[in-house]
Specification:
Layout: E1 2-3, E2 12-15, E3 18-21, E4 24-26, E5 28-32, E6 35-40, H1 42-46, E7 54-57, E8 62-65, E9 67-69, H2 75-79, H3 92-103, E10 112-114, H4 138-144, E11 150-152, E12 165-169, H5 171-177, E13 190-194, E14 201-207, H6 227-243, E15 246-255, H7 257-268, E16 275-280, H8 289-299, E17 308-309, E18 313-319, E19 321-322, H9 326-332, E20 348-349, H10 351-363, E21 368-370, H11 374-385, E22 394-395, H12 403-411, E23 415-418, H13 420-426, H14 428-435, H15 446-451, E24 456-458, H16 467-476, H17 493-506, E25 525-528, E26 545-550, E27 553-557
Parallel strand pairs: 2-7, 3-8, 9-15, 10-11, 15-16, 16-18, 18-21, 19-20, 21-22, 22-23, 23-24
Antiparallel strand pairs: 1-6, 2-5, 3-4, 5-6, 8-25, 11-12, 12-14, 13-14, 17-18, 25-26, 26-27
Domain Amidohydrolase: 54-556
Pfam families: Amidohydro_3 (PF07969)
InterPro entries: Amidohydro_3 (IPR013108), Metal-dep_hydrolase_composite (IPR011059), Metal_Hydrolase (IPR032466), YtcJ-like (IPR033932)
């Protein structure tokens, strides 16, 4: 039996299971307070229990370390239930009826803002799902709510990963937004659809942006998520992630002030059930390289190293992205509102400005996170000026990497977060066609990265939230068309579980504290609905947690 020296009796023991620990498989585990204190046979662990110990019979269930989502956007999950849903509407009349029912609960003049048309979570084939074969227009929505402004929001584009995005406003909403026949779209990526006869806007907006622009520009008058809604949604999000076995998240895209405020409220009121490590999403007031460097130099010292906070709620490092588009400016103008994003749009900068900022960050021990392919070359340029190889900067959303780029990632000391649902499952065949079959092995090259010693974590990106999808994709390497994508880059089930837990812990230098079931580590673990090491391959993605423990405390229970 493996034990840790402790004067405390176990507060919780799990018996008669399959505990997948760092040193092999055990039948039982004991927890005292926040820590794992013993692993062994059921008889050995049961002997440690006292009358104050909670004892749970696992009845053969598998226990794994709690997952650490390397790119979570956890706050979004609960927000999806904040707005009225149009799910189940199969015709324009269905939509009209549903909005009319909402209007009956509102006072005249109150806004009605709904979720997008279509079926969550991905909202595929929207128009084909409507009997009339078209979207409702302003006049349809006027029939539903003649006395209320109505706005049907677009999806967050990465839910579906295909364009365009569509949002719809009724006449009252258009009037409040100041949109009429003379209104010109603020960018070429937005179309204000119009009535052919009169030229008047018909209320339908079409945009070729995966991150919506319309709701933050033309339709800024529509209500955004309130602070109270964000708090309630975040607490609900944590419960959803717990049900998937996730006990920690790394918010590598950065979080905006409104999301940080929600986290602080949830923490202060005792509702936090998922540990959160966040990267700072700066709202740069200028895109001048020297202005940005000076700002970081003046206030950024608190972002260095592990930053501020504790094992429950921490912030460190800096998010960076190259972008000087018109769309960036339009989204940024809605500050401090961020919509679905939860990060500041003006954290992105022109390349020269971002390079200046990152060099300053490197010199001051401030880690940086980037999620676009063009960030790898920029990281290398920064390293030539101010070495970063000992700082574990993070490169996320790995799409494809050549063998030389894998070596470059390893040489720079980067950790990576991988978004397998998007780039392997949804787009695998598309990327094979783009790169050529001879280069298919470059698509999310997990085996090559692992062999190079690069820390790999899985990120859900909240599409969908369960990391069991990532584990399944890493092992099976099949896309949604059933095509096998570079099977030589597959991981074993044991390796994939390690990426989902210990790989995520590496993003915050917490490998010694969490990410595996090890005596002395934090008691973050999940009791699963099926054994991911032996179940049928097609069942891995469907696994959930029946009991989730964080910090030694049960936060989700279904058994």
């Amino acid at each position: 039996m493996a034990t840790a020296s402790s004067n405390c009796s176990p507060t919780l023991v799990l018996l008669n299971g399959k505990v997948v620990a760092d040193d092999g498989i055990h039948a039982a585990v004991a927890i005292a307070g926040q820590r794992i204190t013993a692993l062994g046979t059921s008889a050995e662990i049961a002997a440690l229990a006292t009358t104050d110990t909670e004892i749970i019979d696992l009845a053969g269930r598998t226990v794994v370390a709690g997952f650490v989502d390397g790119h979570a956007h956890m706050d979004r999950e609960g927000l999806k239930s904040t707005l009225p849903s149009l799910s189940g509407c199969r015709s324009i009349e269905d939509i009209v009826d549903k909005i009319a029912a909402i209007a009956a609960t509102k006072k005249p003049g109150e806004w009605i803002v709904t979720m997008p048309i279509g079926e969550p979570p991905s909202y595929e084939d929207v128009v084909s799902g409507i009997a009339e074969g078209r979207f409702p227009d302003r006049w349809d929505l006027d029939r539903a709510a003649p006395d209320n402004p109505v706005y049907i929001r677009s999806i967050w584009g990465y839910w579906r990963s295909t364009l365009p995005l569509v949002s719809i406003a009724n006449s009252a909403a258009l009037k409040l937004a100041g949109i009429d026949a003379a209104t010109v779209a603020p960018t070429g990526s937005i179309e204000i659809c119009r009535d052919d006869a009169t030229g008047e806007p018909n209320g339908i907006f079409i945009e070729t942006n995966k991150m919506p622009v319309v709701e933050l520009s033309l339709m800024r008058q529509a209500p955004h998520f309130s602070p109270a809604e964000r708090v309630t949604a975040l607490a609900a999000s944590m419960q959803a992630y717990n049900r998937a076995g996730t006990t920690s998240v790394f918010e590598g895209h950065g979080v905006a002030s409104e999301v940080l405020d929600a986290y602080r409220d949830v923490r202060a009121t005792g509702r936090q059930t998922v540990r959160a490590a966040m990267i700072f999403s700066p709202a740069w007031g200028s895109t001048s390289p020297e202005d940005c460097r000076a700002l970081l130099k003046s206030w950024g010292h608190w972002l260095a190293g592990r930053g501020l906070g504790d094992q429950w709620l921490a912030m460190s490092g800096l998010y960076g992205e190259i972008d000087n588009s018109v769309e960036r400016e339009l989204r940024s103008a809605a500050f401090p509102q961020t919509g679905w994003a939860g990060f500041h749009y003006n954290s992105s900068l022109p390349r020269d400005a971002l390079k200046t900022v990152l060099v300053e960050a490197a010199r001051n021990g401030i880690r940086a996170v980037g999620i676009l392919p063009n960030m790898l070359d920029l990281f290398a340029e920064v390293d030539d000026i101010a070495p970063i190889s000992d700082q574990r900067w993070v490169l996320g959303h790995i799409v494809s990497l050549t063998p030389d780029q894998v070596k470059q990632v390893a040489g720079l000391g980067l950790a990576v977060t991988t978004h397998l649902s998007a780039y392997l499952y949804k787009r695998g065949s598309e990327l094979v066609e783009k790169l050529g079959r001879e280069r298919a092995g470059e698509i999310v090259p997990l085996r090559a990265l692992r062999d190079a010693g690069v820390p790999i974590s899985f990120g859900s990106d909240n599409v969908p939230l369960s990391l069991f999808h990532s584990i399944a994709h890493a092992v099976n390497r099949r896309d949604r068309l059933g095509a096998l994508i570079a099977p030589e880059q597959a991981l074993t089930r044991e390796e994939a579980l390690e990426c989902a837990a210990l790989g995520g812990a590496a993003l915050t230098f917490e490998e010694a504290e969490k990410g595996s079931i090890t005596v002395g580590k934090l008691a973050d673990l999940a009791v699963l609905s099926a054994d991911p090491l032996s179940c049928a391959a097609e069942m891995v993605s469907q696994i959930g947690s029946e009991l989730t423990v964080v910090d030694g405390r049960i936060v989700h229970r279904q058994l």
